[in-house]
Structure formats: C-alpha cells, structure tokens
Amino acid sequence: MARGIGTAKGVAGLALALLLAGCGGNADREVPMDQLDAESIFKLGEQSLATNRKAEDAVHYFAEVERLYPYSEMAKRALIMQAYGYHKDKDYENSRAAAQRYIDTYPAEEDAAYAKYLLALSYYDQIDEVGRDQGLTFQALQALRAVIEEYPDSDYAKSAILKFDLAFDHLAAKEMEIGRYYLRRHHFTAALNRFRVVVEQYQTTAHTAEALYRLIECYLSLGLTDEAQTAGAILGYNYQSTVWYEDGYRLLTKQGLQPEAKGTGWLATIYRRVIKGEWL
Q: Exposure winner among 23, 43, 232, 278, fewest CB in 10 A?
C-alpha cells in the first residue's frame, strides 16, 4: 500500500514538474488539473504570476483550485489571489467581483482586510487624470473609508488613508479646473460657485489657497468688494507665505482695498468660525 501511495505522489510530482517547465503557455490548460492536488495547482498559479506579464493564466489556475477543491483552505487563498491577479492585469471589474466574493464568503477571515483593500484599489487605480468621470473618485473614497474604519490597525488602513487624501485632493482639483474654465470665459458667478465648494468642502486640500485667490478675482470682477476683502483676510491668515496671498493682496490694493473681514456673507461666517472661533 505504501508503495502505491509513493508511486501516486511520484506521478503527481512529475506532472507538476512538467507543467512548471512549460508554465505560461496556453498548452498548460490542456493538462487535466484533477491529476494534481490543490497545493500543486496553487503553486502553478504563483509560478505563472511570477513569470508572465499577463496574469490570465495564473487566474485560471487559482480558479481551478476553487473548482476542484471548494471550501478548502487553498480555495480561500486561491480566491484572494484571483482578485490580485485580475488587478495586476488591470481587469478592475473582475478584480472587484472576486474581492467582493471573498468578502461575502469569508468575512471573518484575515484576508478579508486585503480583499476590501483590493476592492478600493480597483476604483482608486482608475483615477488617472482630473478630466475623468468623478463617479470613480467618489466610489474610491467610499471603499477606502470602509478599509480605514473596519480595519484601523492594519497596514492596509495606513495605505488607504494616504490614498483617501489623494482622492479627496483629486475632487478639489476637478472643481478648480471647472472654476478656472468659467473664469477664463468671464462667467464669474459660475466660477465662484466652484471655488466656494473647494473652500467649504475641501479646505484640507492643497487647492484652498488658490481657490481663495480666485474668489478675490471673481468678487472684484462682480464689484462685490466686501466679499473680496474677506477672502483676502482668510487667505492672509492661513496662507500668508504663499504666492496666492501676494497676488491677492496686489489685486486688492490696486483698488484701494485691504484684506479684512467685512459684511455678513458666507466668507464672513467662515472667518468668524475658523479664525475668530465664533460659532454662534
């Protein structure tokens, strides 16, 4: 009996060696996977990931582990590796699907945090330029927030925080781009509405100083000097060392104005709350 077992293992080992020798070609898929155990097939997937530019073959092997050995420990690992393989191939839709399937099937497993992180990355990695549809950015923010809140002590949360800040900055950049577009065409009211969004909703981003300067431009163009001066006051208080304050100060003084909080508009309210600490 021991001899028979040893022979079976030898055949499986030989089959695996032959597959590894030719790993990466489509011919591999013609070899029946049911002759190998789950760990051997999984190793084929790992080998394929390491040697092939495209992860398609690797994903196939991991899927075979799931098909042939469902509910096994290796099947769990194979599913998360499918999500990773798809992501490596920039097949974000399938990566999301595999990651979500892992979360739904194994919510209490340790790799659930990584699955959640991959899910967020599938949105985040498509935010490659300001001009793209911002729906992806909102979805990335929601998914990154889930990682941060559900796994706060994990390394994935640390990475998610950095990416969340970048995605948040991306939304502010989009508002600035649209605002500048309107400003160049002298649509001052439409432009200031965009810059207002940045000041009110994205004040922690790198775009706030420019947004305040653009508000000075818009309000001066509309003859609303109180609002322009108040924008200058906030800009001077928070960003006095920036070129945006220097340019804003120059715009105001050319018209005989100084940066100071005036009036009762929305900017005056921000000045009182943020700078004076008056919330009531």
A: 278
